[in-house]
Each structure stands twice: as structure tokens, then as C-alpha cells.
From TrEMBL:
Residue ranges of domain Glutamate/phenylalanine/leucine/valine/L-tryptophan dehydrogenase C-terminal in the record: 158-365
Keywords (A to Z) from UniProt: NAD, Nucleotide-binding, Oxidoreductase
Entries under Pfam families matching the protein: ELFV_dehydrog, ELFV_dehydrog_N
SMART domains with a match to the protein in the record: ELFV_dehydrog (SM00839)
Full protein name: Glu/Leu/Phe/Val dehydrogenase dimerization region
Organism per entry: Gillisia limnaea (strain DSM 15749 / LMG 21470 / R-8282)
Any one Gene Ontology BP term: amino acid metabolic process
Residues annotated as binding NAD(+): 194-199
Length: 366
């Protein structure tokens, strides 16, 4: 029998939205268009059972609108599970603005985007993501209260990256406890890929713990700066086949893919990047079969969302740190549960998150 392979164009013809590869029972998808400011945005609202859909806005020069829609769908779904597993009363949403943040972002465009967010009456709450910063959220705040990640001077919780890094560090320690029987990272060789906002703060935690830190980045100035500051070793060569104990992806997503997965020598993968597994099913299974412990990204990088949630709930820094530290316990629990059930760690985390959503749905019906 001949199997017909559908191209992206075929899919568009047969199933414009509801049958998309990344469509996963999303509640609502909003297309925002404004000719005057040049705004073209898509807001993906995946699930609001646990609360309003919160997730950042990404501005990116997408190769096509199809790619932008796919990103909004994929990222908003990820937010649903991130908040659910972290125990936050938030749903999952994400927005993408099509365009180059360096040349096409204007205050008018951000204000217009904010008006679209406002039109959803709080069902979607935005924050910053790639291509956005606190100042942009401050502009959005001028036209809607449904925004987080604003400046501390106007009631925001400030930069989430150090909190994210602390959570990743906690998740990494839990993975070490599970794999090596101790969460002490002293002497462990750790490769940090991407030493931006989160990566650098992670390097600091690791250095303080006495780990042997290797760093890799495409930005050579940052490499020199971070290497000098923390006495970390700049790694030159193929980072995947490097002889290290832990690989921490802190750059872009999908770094664990068909090309890299069989070269990975590390026994633990724990990092900040979203969607680290190019294909969560296939690559999650390969890691499991190889005995590589994968700390699910959406679980251990939740420090940032815990930080912005504080803006909505009004809890303080101490509570933010307590909730983020708890990533250690949740990670350990997930890793053990994956072993018991003989499933991938990614699936174990998804199951627990889904269970929380299903339970709340039942409660809401009663
Ligand atoms: P960032 O832009 O500050 O840093 C990313 C770094 O990765 C940059 O230094 C960049 O030069 C480097 N990089 C890009 N491509 C690379 C490559 N191929 N190899 C090596 N280095 C490369 O971003 P960030 O805020 O530090 O976030 C890092 C990752 O964590 C992102 O994937 C982000 O989505 C995710 N994340 C961040 C937060 C947060 O609070 N900032 C929260 C959750 C998830």
C-alpha cells in the first residue's frame, strides 16, 4: 500500500487550523491585524480550566504565517502544562507578533497589540518573551491591566531570568539525586549551552557549588566575559559528544534532535530552553532507552512564570523563592514516577499536569 505524505500546503488546504500539526484542542486562536501600525499577531489560548491563559509575547521574523501560527499553538500548549505542573492557577496562552523586533517594533504597534489583549477581557494575560522587554510590557500596561512582567517601579516583579535559573538549578540537583544518589554537584562536569540571561545565572549557581563548568555560545564576547567572571572553561568543538556529566540546554529549543541525540554523552539533561526535544515522543523514548535522565524543560524552567504569577497574586519574594525551590521535589517525584510506570519523564510530567486539569474540570462541573 502506498502511503500518501501530506505537505504543509496540502494540510493548509484540507485542515486550515483545527487539523494543524500543533493543534491540540486549543480553545481559541485570535488573529490580530492593524494596517496603520503594521501589526500582525496571533494569540493562542490553549486551555483556561485552571485560570486565565498566561504566556509571553514573542516577536519574531517568521518565514511564513504558517510558521507563526504553529509557534503560537505549540508555545501556548506548553504554557498550559508548565503552569499545571507547577501548581499555579493559570491556563496556557502565548502570543506571537510577526516581524523584526529590532526594526518593526514601535510604541504604537505595542499599544495596538495591548488593545487586542484587552479585548479578550482577561482570558489571556501577556508577558515578555523573545523580542520583548520590560519597557514593551510597560507600554502594553498603558492600555490594559492584563499584562505581567512590567517594571518594578509600576508594580512589576522585575527580571524573571535569575529565578528561572534557580529553578533549573533545583531541577538539575534533583536529577543528580535520582541518577547519582547525591544532589551535590561538586566536581560534576556541566556543559551550559547558551550563556544569556538564564545561562549566566545558572553558571553562577554551578560555580558556587564547585561544579566544573563548560560554556558554549555563538556570542564570543559573552563567552569571554562569563569565562573570566566565573572561571568557566570555554568549550570548543562538538558540545554533544563532550565528555560531561550534565548537559544544560539554555539557548534555543529542539537541540535534542535526530542529528544530536546519539552523540550525547551526558547522563543528565537539565536546562532552561523551551521545547528541548525536537519530537517529544521519539526523542523522549530514545533518551529513556539510553538511560539518560531528562528533567522535563517545562517543569524545571517554571521559575519565570512563578515570578510573574506573583504580580497577579501579590505574594512576596520569599514565596517566589519557596515555590521555585519546590521544583526540586516535583522533579524528583516525576523522575521516580516515570521509572515506576516505565514511561518517559516527559510523559510522566504531562500526565500529572493533565490530571490536575482534569480534576479541576470535574470540580467545576459539580
Ligand atoms: P537569552 O537570549 O538571554 O540567551 C540565549 C543565549 O543563547 C544567547 O547568549 C545566545 O547567543 C545563545 N545562543 C543562541 N543560539 C545558540 C547556539 N546555537 N549555541 C549556543 N548558544 C546559542 O535568553 P534567556 O532569557 O537566557 O533564555 C534562554 C532559554 O531559556 C530560551 O530558550 C528561553 O525561551 C528559555 N526560558 C527563559 C526564561 C526566562 O526567564 N528568561 C524562562 C523560561 C524559559
Amino acid at each position: 500500500m502506498q502511503v500518501e505524505v501530506l505537505t504543509a500546503n496540502d494540510l493548509i488546504k484540507t485542515a486550515p487550523v483545527f487539523g494543524q500539526l500543533s493543534f491540540d484542542d486549543h480553545e481559541q486562536v485570535v488573529f490580530c491585524n492593524d494596517k496603520d501600525t503594521g501589526l500582525k499577531a496571533i494569540i493562542g489560548i490553549h486551555n483556561t480550566v485552571l485560570g486565565p491563559a498566561l504566556g509571553g509575547t514573542r516577536m519574531w521574523n517568521y518565514a511564513s504565517e504558517w510558521e507563526a501560527l504553529n509557534d503560537a499553538l505549540r508555545l501556548s500548549r506548553g504554557m498550559t502544562y508548565k503552569s499545571a505542573i507547577t501548581g499555579l492557577n493559570l491556563g496556557g496562552g502565548k502570543a506571537v507578533i510577526i516581524g523584526d523586533a529590532k526594526t518593526q517594533k514601535t510604541p504604537e504597534l505595542m499599544r495596538r497589540f495591548g488593545q487586542f489583549v484587552h479585548s479578550l477581557s482577561g482570558k489571556y494575560i501577556t508577558a515578555e518573551d523573545i523580542g520583548m522587554d520590560t519597557e514593551d510590557m510597560d507600554i502594553v500596561r498603558e492600555v490594559t491591566p492584563f499584562v505581567t512582567g512590567i517594571s518594578e517601579s509600576i508594580g512589576g516583579a522585575g527580571n524573571p531570568s535569575p529565578i528561572t535559573a534557580f529553578g533549573v538549578f533545583m531541577g538539575m540537583k534533583a536529577a543528580a539525586k535520582y541518577k547519582y544518589g547525591t544532589d551535590d554537584l561538586e566536581g560534576k562536569k556541566v556543559m551550559v549551552q547558551g550563556i544569556g540571561h538564564v545561562g549566566e545565572a545558572l553558571v553562577e549557581h554551578l560555580t558556587n557549588e564547585g561544579a566544573q563548568v563548560f560554556i558554549s555560545d555563538i556570542n564570543h564576547e559573552r563567552l569571554d566575559e562569563v569565562s573570566r567572571k566565573y572561571n568557566a572553561t570555554i568549550y570548543v568543538g562538538d558540545i554533544y559528544s563532550a565528555d560531561v556529566d550534565i548537559y544544560a540546554p539554555c539557548a534555543l529549543g529542539a537541540s535534542v534532535n535526530d542529528e544530536t541525540i546519539n552523540r550525547i554523552k551526558a547522563s543528565i539533561i537539565a536546562g532552561a530552553a523551551n521545547n528541548q526535544l525536537a519530537d517529544e515522543r521519539t526523542h523522549g523514548k530514545i533518551l529513556k532507552d539510553k538511560g539518560i535522565v531528562y528533567a522535563p524543560d517545562f517543569l524545571i524552567n517554571a521559575g519565570g512564570i512563578i515570578n510573574v504569577y506573583a504580580e497577579l497574586e501579590g505574594y512576596d519574594r520569599k514565596e517566589i523563592m519557596r515555590k521555585t525551590e519546590n521544583i526540586y521535589n516535583t522533579t524528583l517525584e516525576i523522575l521516580k514516577s516515570a521509572e515506576r510506570k516505565n514511561i518517559t519523564t516527559h510523559n510522566a510530567a504531562l500526565q500529572i499536569a493533565q490530571q490536575r486539569i482534569d480534576d479541576r474540570k470535574r470540580e467545576n462541573l459539580n
